[in-house]
Amino acid sequence: LKKYWNSFKTVVTDPSKKLASKKVLYTMGIGLVISYLYFTHESPRVQDKKMADVFKKGKIDREFNPTKLVKRENLENALKEILQLSFQKYFLISGEHGTGKTTLVQNTILNLQEPKHATSPHSELLYEKYKRPIVLILDQVDRIAKEDPKFLRILQDFAKDCADKGTLVIVFIASEGLVPQIMRSRSAWSQASTPFEVGDISDEEAVKFLQDSGIDKKKAEDAVKYLTGERFILLEEVQLLNRVNPKNLVEKFKEQMFTQIKRDLDTVELPANHEFFIKLIEVDHIDIRKAKTIIPLNMIHKLVEANILKEHQDYTVSFHSRYIDTYFKEVILADDVIH
């Protein structure tokens, strides 16, 4: 990505390549999706050509079938507003891993009305015609943050500079956690818009999603109610398992997920019937300050890292997923029966 980024910055900023800059940037009226490492295995010349071609086309470059997606019209409409904005901001689209952030952005871009290319090379005329600046979307920014947080800061500073000048709108897509923490901690955050959060779909949409892939309605309802919830990544795992073991689909998936929880609990050395989990079942969400009176803060962090707990922006925690909630309810119920 750094090789690609250097090519991009050269085209954007080098006065000797003014004509190339106009060809690449001033002829485009909408954005694109760039995945991390997409260009890193090709020569710089090929990278430059692909980058220019994608900008000119203004669409994502790989095959994509939006008919297989769950429609999320409210989120798509809100995202369309971001992709066609005319004011000076840059954006962060965030959400838990597996909530469908990339899929949502891809589908939204594919359904945007594709603008005709401007005949004039001047950005002022392009802006006047389309009433919005160029949009660049950077996907899977988590990988950059983990491997090279300094480079993420460079990208953020560049996004702020472009926002200040009104020349380019940059959209970062990332999971909750490291990227938002890094970006919010810096002065460049002052030019960022309020983060756009992508959550899960509804239970009804999740059931339909499974049914559309050929899963029996009752099995789909049980899987969503007790195991997957509305999490896309879990729904896709159920889809895959259905191809191998459709007869015992729910039971097999439950067994796999519960086994993973047991392994995770072993790493944090906390029993499943601990009073903290009992309390969390009762209240659903618990304030971290109150949670610290039951278990140490470092234990809460371990549970979050193990994806047993999920930390929320309001400084509360809950069970990370539907199957985790089901697991602890069954364990504690069985423990009550024994006693």
- Strand order, largest beta sheet: 1-3-4-2-5
Instruction: Tell me the radius of gyration.
Output: 23 Å
At the first level of CATH, the class of the largest domain is Alpha Beta
CATH topology of the largest domain: Rossmann fold
Q: Which spans have pLDDT < 50 for at least 5 consecutive residues?
A: 11-40, 60-67, 115-123
Class computed from helices, strands and strand pairing:
alpha/beta
* String of helices and strands: HHEHHEHHEHHEHEHHHHHEHHEEH
Instruction: Categorize the overall geometry.
Output: globular
User: In percent, how much strand structure appears in the residues?
Assistant: 5-15%
Query: Average pLDDT across residues?
Result: 73
What is the β-strand count?
8
Number of helices: 17
Query: Percent range for helical residues?
Result: 55-70%
CATH architecture assignment of the largest domain: 3-Layer(aba) Sandwich
Distance between the termini: 58 Å
Reported for the largest beta sheet, the result is: 5 strands, parallel
Verbal overview:
This protein has helices at 2-13, 18-25, 44-57, 73-83, 101-110, 123-130, 141-147, 149-165, 178-184, 203-211, 217-228, 232-244, 249-268, 275-283, 288-291, 297-305, 322-338; strands spanning 33-34, 91-95, 134-138, 168-175, 196-197, 286-287, 309-311, 316-319. The strands form two sheets. Strands 1-3-4-2-5 form a five-stranded parallel β-sheet, sandwiched between helices. Strands 6-8-7 form a three-stranded antiparallel β-sheet. Strand 7 (309-311) and strand 8 form a beta hairpin. The protein is α/β, with parallel strands linked by helices and 339 residues long. The N and C termini lie far apart (58 Å).
